[in-house]
Amino acid sequence: MPYALFCNDAQMSKAYPTEADVWRLARQSGLVVDVMISAGRSTAQLQLDNDYEIRACAAEPEEDPWQNRAEAEQEFNIPFAS
Fold it and tell me: Is residue 63 part of a domain?
């Protein structure tokens, strides 16, 4: 099942093969913020800005999530793990 970035139930990105792919693109776009879990710990939890969320979705009939991933890798120079 592919994944995409959503905001208020509207799909904001193309579909990508994995949730991790969408996280990488969201980080590249500046939509990821670090939120401290507690003041006493140095561990941070990643969270999307505003009302954004990453969800499973169905790709459009003519859309190829793997091709979207390859295009994003070239356009944004993001190394995706295989």
Answer: no
